[in-house]
Amino acid sequence: MLQITKTTRVSGAKDLLVILTDNAQLRGIGLERNDHQYLLEQLKDEPLMATCDISGRLVMVHQVRKGSTSQQLERARQAGNAMALKLIATKREEAQAVSLQGDPALTLALLEGATLGAYTFNRHKTGDQPRTLKKLGLIATEVKAPALQELLDVCEANLTARDLVNEPVSHLSAVQLGQAAQKLGKSAGFTTKVMNKKQIEAEKMGGLLAVNQGSIDPPVFIVMEWKPKGAVNKKPVVLVGKGVVYDTGGLSLKPTPNSMDAMKCDMAGAAAVIGAITAVAKRKLPVHVVALVPSTDNRPGGRAFAPGDVLKMHSGLTVENLNSDAEGRLILADALSYGERYDAETIFTIATLTGAASRAIGTYGTVTMGTATEQQFALLHEAADSTYERVARMPFWDEYGEEIKSDIADMKNIGGPLAGQITAGKFLARYTTKPFIHLDIAGPSFLDKRDHYRTKGGSGVGVRLLFEFIKRRASAK
Asked: Which residues form the catalytic set?
């Protein structure tokens, strides 16, 4: 990950990433008149970044324009990404970031875009690795050391989530995902328990066990907890992430290509909650947080669960399986039921759950719905605006629940052909009595092309959003 350290003097030899709010501030970096004028001319028309090559030294400038705070922060992130890519393209390994304005949030956003945008996943490539941007010196009196460290911790958690999502199932089974969570728990300071198949059987998690039936690898159920002294919440925030490390669709086999070939990403929800609790623990936020990950792969092996099967879930409810590619909600349902023991003040599910969610809003945001209070949803929307991991709230009318009624069991695991993202959420809501927020990240979790600092492949979506929600909960009344 890009290393950022504070410094005090602008080097006349190093490339510069500059952020300012007013053209007059450009005088603060001591450019020659012609270079100064050249950048000013670009800034008249360039909404994101002006660039000047001064005898091989790059000076790149982002001017903050009018707009909402959310828009200004996002443009600064995009500018930081563009600057990092320019440096990488010219094989620079070190540069300086200089703030000529006084808003720390804008400066940090620029650094965030550069850090996230410089990410690559190349651990399986052999030979010499290409040169990339490694270090930034930061000159910004408005940015204090704790705020900079928080940014770096959250970025690292996001990039860890990306690594997990990008890792193929040949290198990341459910068991290995549990081992990764344990390793992160030791380094960040949260507790981790990984339940094996026998323990899952003892808990009677019929959904998770059914999905695992076709696999040659065992399932795991991961329980992570951050419980600091003096936590502001008497009841924990519980995060539940879908951990299907690879999804063929089971006997309801997916088509390929452009469907099954990217299904290593079906554990992006698990990666999000693992990343989020890692960042929360590293920052020692005074909020009690529990994170649950049911994990398996979904394959059409000889004992695979079949359409028409009736499953008995952890809660005791029965489910008629009508589509074994609607497996994520089955394992999440067991986790939600298990989570009842924590008496959560808010319980989240986050999952690559339905194609309907991505068809509804594309890759630009996350579909959300649930039974939580308006105050809890307002906190979520504030976090979404701040991080630009935007959410679109769906209706949650009772009529959607009618679509998952079964003739032979308590419910079925799919609804009708329309609004599948909502009927999936209704299915999950049957397994918790706590204030519930569902996040369907099927659209933004895995990108087939770069979207500014959201690189191709795993985006790590959800880490920054959940961390920001919990950070705001730390100061909420």
From this structure: 254, 329
